[in-house]
Amino acid sequence: QVQLVESGGGLVQVGGSLRLSCAASGSIFSISDMGWYRQAPGKQRELVAFITMTQGTAYADSVKGRFTISRDNSKNTLYLQMNSLKPEDTAVYYCHGHRYGDYWGQGTQVTVSS
Question: Fewest beta carbons less than 10 Å away: which of 40, 64, 104, 112?
Answer without folding.
Answer: 64
